[in-house]
Amino acid sequence: MPLPTTSLSLLSRLRDEGDHAGWQFSWKRFLELYHEPLTAMAAGIYRHHTGNAVPPPQAIEDVVASVVVDFFKRDRFDPNRGRLRTYLRLLTNARVVDMLRKEKPLDHDPMPDGEEKPPKETPEEARTFQQSLLATLIEDLREHIPLRQFEIFEMVKLKGASPDEAAAELGVHRGVIDNTIYKVMSRLREIAANPEYQEEYYS
Amino acid sequence: MKHPLFKSPTDKLSPSEEAAITQELANAYRQNETPEKQPEFKRIIEKVGKRILEEECNP
User: CB A73 to CB B52 under 8 A?
Assistant: First the structure.
């Protein structure tokens, strides 16, 4: 399998898996990575369009499910035309607006003309998106380094084992752990240096 | 302020910056490690699967 040439191409590749089994894996992985920011976005947008009404959980889950289906089945995300963050926000807003319009009679349009744009992103929405982006970065890292190196990184940096504990568990010298962590952190920073990550990270 | 993760890879990080990066990565990893344990995630997975099946049966 060829390595992605850019960091966030992981997402494009998730979408473009050709075979059915791969495609099934793709949308599930995407949902694992992005369901929290999508849920936060949908709830925030719902509150905005309804004058701060509490969003029914089932309605939010329906919106998130629709966004994922759209993302994989209909609308093409082109990273050359904008940020993933903005794209998902527009898509989520459109599905919330659709849902609210279906709920209301035609003569009671909940959003008069010109008021159906997505609201400004809240700090909570920004935080959840950043977390998902970091999780995507970890996925990218996993694909760019040998499995053994990732296991050591995962054990020490992600799961909180001490370097000595990792050395004892893996039966290697402590120096091997330290060298691996140094190498992996350097690789991680190289991947994170891709402008796409920085453009997506900041609001 | 620029997040330390996005500093140039050639810049040396201070111990506190490296600790901050590690903490954030660990949080992100934990958040995404076992989403299937969250009931709302399971419901969304089921909804997406059902809609995809419907679309494939009625393109």
Answer: yes
